[in-house]
Write a structure and sequence with these properties.
Layout (H helix, E strand, L loop, with lengths): L6 E2 L13 E3 L4 E4 L13 E3 L4 E5 L12 E3 L4 E3 L12 E3 L6 E2 L13 E3 L4 E2 L11 H12 L3 E2 L20 E5 L19 E3 L10 H43 L1 H29 L1
Parallel strand pairs: 1-3, 2-4, 3-5, 4-6, 5-7, 6-8, 8-10, 9-11, 12-13, 13-14
Helix pairs in contact: 2-3
Length: about 280
């Protein structure tokens, strides 16, 4: 039920749906707190409550959802501290853009399967636990990201899209100017950060150097002009060769000349008949 206009609070009747495995309620207008009855969902693996107006602390009762793998409450108004009850099966934890405070609990290092931990845009303080470097799954995911890095210019064809909901090209090796288009400039700079050679809106770095702008516009124009010039030259040469080839054949080869004039006479006769019939029809 994501991406709707659902409003009001979350029901407290989750105990009646114990077989639920996935709950997706993100991108709505829900408000209130997470009800304690959600702890009855022992089989729950995925819980998306992101981008709503939910508030309060993340309830301790969620620790009973031992199979929870993806927990996304980003883009709400949750407060309090990061919960210490995170299960060992958790793979993705999204707390981005809330009002969570306090430090990062060392207990989070017990989540050996954790791949993504997003705590951005909160009020977190203190030190980062040194045990985070021991999280094997997170290290492997980081290594994979390095191997699959993209590079070069962002394709200009992306600027023609009008239906992108999410774009994240951050921390790669993209270079030169971000193609101009309502979609690409509509995302914030977080979608492009971490690309030192990338420039243009929405990044604060201007493409003042001509070499950053040229390959996107002028190079294509030069190539197009070069192609058109070659096309016109080839067409002219072809016409010249064909015209004089026919002329030489008419004057030098009697059989070709006779066939050519017979062809012209047959066309003349057909045109004469067509004109006569037309005049007779309207006469």
């Amino acid at each position: 039920m994501s991406n709707n206009l659902l409003s009001g609070g979350l029901t407290n009747g989750w105990m009646y749906w114990k077989a639920l495995v996935i709950i997706r309620l993100g991108d709505n207008n829900l408000s209130g707190t997470i009800p304690p009855s959600i702890s009855f969902l022992a089989n729950l693996k995925i819980l998306h409550l992101n981008n709503n107006n939910l508030f309060g602390e993340i309830p301790l009762s969620l620790k009973y959802c031992q199979n929870l793998q993806i927990f996304d409450v980003g883009g709400n108004k949750f407060s309090g501290s990061i919960p210490k009850w995170i299960g060992h099966n958790a793979k993705i934890l999204q707390f981005r853009s809330n009002q969570i405070s306090g430090n990062i609990p060392p207990e989070i290092c017990q989540s050996e399967s954790l791949i993504i931990l997003d705590l951005a845009y909160n009020k977190i303080s203190g030190i980062i636990p040194s045990c985070l470097h021991n999280m094997t799954a997170m290290r492997q995911a980081s290594s994979s990201n390095v191997v699959t890095t993209f590079c070069g210019e962002i394709p200009r064809s992306l600027a023609q899209l009008s239906f992108l909901g999410t774009l994240n090209l951050s921390f790669n090796n993209f270079s030169r100017m971000i193609p101009l288009g309502t979609q690409l400039q509509g995302f914030d700079e977080l979608s492009y950060i971490g690309n030192p050679e990338l420039c243009g809106a929405p990044l604060p770095k201007n493409c003042s150097d001509k070499k950053d702008v040229k390959p996107i516009e002028e190079n294509d124009t030069d190539q197009e002009d070069e192609f058109l010039a070659s096309f016109y030259i080839a067409s002219g040469v072809g016409f010249f060769v064909a015209f004089w080839g026919v002329c030489i054949a008419i004057f030098c080869i009697s059989s070709f000349r006779n066939s050519y004039f017979r062809f012209l006479f047959s066309i003349r006769d057909k045109l004469y008949v067509m004109v006569a019939l037309t005049m007779n029809r309207f006469g």
